[in-house]
Amino acid sequence: MADVWPPRKWARPSDPMLFEALTLQLGYNATLVTVGAMLLGVAAGATGTFLFLGKRALVSDAISHATLPGVALAFMFMVAFGGDGRSLIGLLLGSAVTSAIGLLCVSALTHRTRLSEDAAIGAVLSVFFGFGIVLLTVIQSMNAGRQAGLESFLLGSTAGMLWSDAVVIALGGMLVLLAVLILRRPMTTVAFDPDFAAGAGMNVRRIELAMMGLAMAITVVGLKIVGLILIVALLIIPAVAARFWSHRVGHVVLLAGVFGGVAGYVGAAISATAPALPTGPIIVLVVFAIFLMSLLIAPARGVLAAMLRHRRFQAQVHVRQGLLALATDQPIYERLTLRLMKRRGLVRADGVATETGQAQAARALLDERRWQVLRSDPAHSDAAAHYDGLTPLDTVLTPDQLKALDQGLGPRAAT
Amino acid sequence: MTGAEFVPLSLPPLIIGTCAAIACAIPGNFLLLRKQALIGDAISHVVLPGIVLAFLATGVVSAWPMMIGAGVAALVAVGLIEAVRRLGRIESGAAMGVVFTAMFAGGVLLLEQSDTSSVHLDVEHALFGNLESLIWLDATGWSSLFDLRALAGMPPELWRMAITTFVLIALCILFWRPLKLSTFDEGFAQTIGLPVNLIGLGLVVTAAIAAVAAFDAVGSIIVIAMFICPPAAARMMTNGLEAQVLWSVVFAAASAILGYVLAGYGPLWLGFENAVSAAGMIATVSGVILALAGAFGPCRTRSGAPVYPRLCARAARPGASKSCG
Fold this sequence. Notes:
Chain A has helices at 15-22, 28-53, 59-65, 67-80, 88-112, 117-142, 152-155, 163-192, 194-199, 204-222, 231-243, 249-272, 279-297, 303-327, 335-343, 355-376, 381-384, 399-406. By secondary structure, chain A is an all-alpha fold. Chain A starts with 14 loop residues before the first helix and ends in a 9-residue tail after the last helix. Helices cover 70% and strands 0% of the residues of chain B. The radius of gyration of chain B is 21 Å and the shape is globular.
């Protein structure tokens, strides 16, 4: 019982062990799991990107939950025909069948009825999962002794992974990756603009089904390592993280594959170092950490970059307004403006303009007056569209145009 | 089946299941119409880290700390989803997928790290609930319902769930007009001065309360199913919001009762010895109801329905106007 917080016995990877795990020296089983998880992560990241770009990320949630009844039915089927019901390929085939049915149900509910896709997803995932649980309890009562721990498919279990299991996972992952490579162009088009794809003569429905089919294959392959509840994370999170770094589909797919692979490798390695570190959740947490880092530090789309951009813009506006106030001899009260202008050497501590300050203030005023003339003249409407109160006019017009414009300025402009 | 057997063993789970189903279905209607149906899914995943943290903090498996933990986790998740969506400019489905899977993974990891072998706390329990074990040992028959001393021995989940359900119904009636307005025409609701953002947040918080209360008694899977399936089936039956909410309550209650009976007695009728999971069966029955409504419901098609709500089916089939009133 843990009656203190935090509990006394946290299982933590010890450093030398973690190094051994990362260099695949922790034994046969750990190596199998680590390599398998990496391949799975690469394939899942690349496949999930197309779902994410098509704004259909959560369809994979319905697909993955719909595998449960399939696993249970396959087990019952195999037992009924005299097997022991534990063949991984058999269980995975069963899960593929029901998740395909679930996928078709989502598609039918969305296209044939008035339900939106999110409602269809929720309905299919809860009903199929519920039915799967009913079947699990049936299996429990059927032959309690040989129940084969089908619950391990909920969260994955890598403890007793066999060479044949690893081969199934590796082969499946590579086949999916190959299919993604072949189908990348039509899938990109359909993900971004299904109407255009239809106009260009593509069979949109079939390509969408292929996209979903690949996600389904990933789910089925990943059942053993990550489990059906968390496999969604491997499909969605790498793609979301990769999207922060690039605007190009090819780069995002590649990067998502890399993120997924790194998460699979590192996560499996960490989990191999201690028994209380379950593989699936650790992999998901590693990929979530990659997402968090991307969210924070990615250039252009990251939070930090956006904050810096905002600060820079804010400073520009404040300094510009301060300069205009200096030029028209108005006092500046705004504290931030004063601080920014002091730091740039435009005003002294008592608020009086320095020489550079005066020069820049005059320039700002001239610029503002030029803009006024420009904007009141319909002939310059194209250039006037550039007005935002910050852009200097001499970056918009040529020197000749500026000279012509200056002739329209009144006598005050000379001061 | 005599009263002496039925009242202690089957009556409390039946009532709790029905209340949980209704409590989830009512906010589910509005979430469905606002295209936020999957919030229920996300919330029911993130209660796991909430209850595990509550258990680690208090060291006991008791209802109130766990419900508070679950509620806090649900609110944190809703806030995180919104933050990820806004900060990263990511569509809400993907933002949800990122947040709830990560929080669920965190919950599983916490559970594995802490020593919970001595108590009944595991992932399966969180998912499937323990509806069958909510029995009323003090009851001896129907007469116990009027016996105050026996009533005190009712499973506490029953009172909690019943109170939650009544509070939800009351809230629904109290805020009916603002809810309806802001759900169907947010712009108009805003112009007449309704705080639409607050209403939206309130709805999600209410849904979280329903989910947490129901989860404690019946597990996550019923919560997700009841948030979506009965309202979705009701949506195929009618175009009026009042009728839709009533239909969804009927469907929810029917799923709960039928599902429980089928799970408890169905296998016996077929000659098997053991009952199957009631939570799973209730979800399955609600899916069957949804499938039937999707195949035969009078207002199942999309054609013209969203634009001229009161004309659905009336133009095409004059005889059907009554059912779509």
